[in-house]
Fold this sequence. Notes:
Helix 13 (about 465-475) crosses helix 14, helix 14 packs across helix 15 (about 505-515) and helix 14 (about 490-500) runs parallel beside helix 16. The protein has helices at about 5-10, 20-35, 70-85, 110-120, 145-150, 175-190, 240-245, 325-335, 380, 400-415, 435-445, 450-460, 465-475, 490-500, 505-515, 525-540, 540-555, 555-565, and strands at about 10-20, 40, 55-60, 90-100, 140-145, 160-170, 190-195, 195-205, 210-215, 225-235, 255-265, 275-280, 295-300, 300-305, 310, 345-355, 375, 385-390, 480-485, 485-490. Helix 2 (about 20-35) links the parallel strand 1 and strand 2. With about 575 residues, it is α+β, with helices and mostly antiparallel strands. The strands form three sheets. Strands 3, 4, 5, 6, 11, 12, 13, 14, 15 and 16 form a ten-stranded mixed sheet that branches. Strands 1, 2, 7, 8, 9, 10, 17 and 18 form an eight-stranded mixed sheet that branches. A two-stranded antiparallel sheet has the order 19-20.
Amino acid sequence: MKRDLKALQQEMFDVVIIGGGITGACLCHDAALRGMRVALVEKGDFGGFTSSASSKLIHGGIRYLPTGQFWKVRESSEERAVFHNIAPHLTRMLPFVVPTFSGGLMKGRAALMAGLLLYEAIGWGLNERIRDPSKKVPNSRFVGKHELTSRFPLLGRLEGLSGAYVLYESHMMSSERMTLAFLKTACRNGAVAANYVRAVDFLRANGKAVVGVVAEDVPTGQRFEIHGRIVANAAGPHIPFINDLLPELRLKKRPSGYSKGVHLVTRQILPDHALTLTTRKKIEGVITRGGRHVFIIPWRHRSLIGTTDVPFSGNLDDVRVTEADILDFIDDLNACLPGLDLCAQDIHYAWAGLYPLMVREIKPDTYQGTGEYQIVDHEKQDGIQGIVTVFGAKYTTARRVAEKAAERISAKIGKLKRFRTSRSVPLAGGDMGDVNQTRRHVQRLYGDRLEPEIIDHLFFLYGTEMHDVIRYGAKNPMLLERLCDGLPTIGAEVVYAADQEMALTLSDIVFRRTDWVTAGHPGKEALERAADLAKRCLGWDEARMKAEMVRVEKAFEVIRSIRKEELR
Ligand SMILES: Cc1cc2nc3c(=O)[nH]c(=O)nc-3n(C[C@H](O)[C@H](O)[C@H](O)COP(=O)(O)OP(=O)(O)OC[C@H]3O[C@@H](n4cnc5c(N)ncnc54)[C@H](O)[C@@H]3O)c2cc1C
């Protein structure tokens, strides 16, 4: 996967996609499988905006049950099965503990049991579609209070606790690498994708039809044209602002605003189960259940906790976590789980993303997403040929939405011949039989050179592409060593990212290609080691290397700041 700006300029593409989040990446993949010539531009790094800020769940759609959107439950459950087949290495089934309480109707055992029976009935038959037996979704089960609290003593202080249901949801090992896997597969099928290229304007023929985009190479500021028969705007929260370049373009529903969702990476709370809680703050919703839901998910020997819901009206290019976000969230968590005693010192990293909302009034502490998406053919809707907008897909449903969009685009340009379907074609690294067998095989294969933890880490992030990563160690065995104690990331991953995965910055490498620092700062010396490797691969001078390190450090500024505050 090479960044080739000349290739973007040299031909007439069938479709030019704006945005390399999960929606754009899935569209790129599906369209390339249909035999279309596809270009994709991403103004930052692939998957670096909302798609890296999610809870990383490929959920079966249980959150759509209370609102009666049963078709969305089925759609999400179907997509979960697809992800398990096409990217088995990047998904893991995780047991979620959902406490039940005596007294309250909606949080009682009977209500939850009824909901789960319905949930499983809607997903009926989908396990048969999953090829690998270890990837099938187990049924939920009830655990009584005694067993629950002896296993998880922390839950013992929950007032009115009567037990819990344990249900299984799918969690991504790395949402960043999942997005990348779609793009890598698309590029192998002929697509041309480039990060750090911003679409700044539409190209028009005789002031009418859209025939491509004016693009800007972000590092140099150089502008060039990319020509295409259709432009697909898949720029996530930025979509309305890009479409505003042409006043005629309208969405079916324009977002009324945005809500910011923050995740925290904390000390480990539960090692191998996720926990669902409701906060104490009362919210209004279709069904009022107390507060909003939060998930505490095991993550890299730590816990990933999400999410907040805070109305956001700032600059979309400056979505950051504030001290107040973290401290308020800590208060919420301590209030809903007595004995948790989370403090600033327990926070290792935090990130934020935006939910676009279609509601009249944006309320704090309230999840107002509906999962609705729109594919707008602006020729039909607004009389402007050559542009389609794809807006509002969840991570879980992005492939499905992209498939529908690609179907419409191929019909518009007369390329109806389908070659292969994105429902079943394995993504880069995902072409394997039984996951457990493959895992045992690579453990045997590399057991003489690498520790089991490193082999597992490489297997679950890169799948069968782990062989390519390890090959870098043949010439230089030091690249097979850990970058820092305690974490299994090795030097070869840095080189692989720079050499083969279009990483242009140190942040691309340490946050998105390797996932190395997403569980917390690895220490200055280790970061310097990684930066030095990147410097040699990418031809940086000393000043550039320092600047890259400063950018990584900036992402930890708020964490440092809250920790100091507590010490003062
Ligand atoms: C806090 C939070 C938690 C979530 N958790 C989950 C979850 O667990 N499971 C789930 O299924 N969904 C979840 N979601 C929803 C999901 O993350 C998003 O719906 C999804 O990532 C949107 O993907 P996207 O590609 O449409 O947008 P984005 O990921 O935002 O991608 C759009 C891309 O377009 C680029 N772009 C913008 N302007 C331009 C331009 N002019 N030129 C070129 N590129 C441009 C941006 O840089 C960006 O990378 C969550 C969302 C949030 C906010």
